[in-house]
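Final report, closing paragraph on structural work. Over the funding period we assembled a curated collection of sequence-structure pairs, and we close with a single example.
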Amino acid sequence: MAVAIWILFLLSTVCGLWTLMALTGTLAPISAPQLLSEQDVTALGDSPRESRRLEIGGNVRTPSTCQIVTFGLAVLLTIVYVPLAVLIHKPPQPPRTPCCTCSCCPVSKPQ
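Its predicted structure, as stored:
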């Protein structure tokens, strides 16, 4: 179960990087739109200072959803796994070897 948790955290990190790359591509595309001159803007009836509305599409939503889901599952499994591992885990007992050959030691007495 611990390996599955680590894999989910790793997938969450990969999805996070994917999300950052998608956001970068959305905010700074390779082919920048052509800027309009003031005459073109006035002819279209828009204000030259009017800002465009930014649309976040599926190219960003999909990886961000994957990141949220994988991270949430990893945290949930960690919350379940850690208490179980602590409660169930029994430390190994050291081997009980006789310290001497006398019959007075409780370890050296035959069972």
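The radius of gyration is 32 Å. The chain has three helices and no strands. We thank the funder for supporting this effort.
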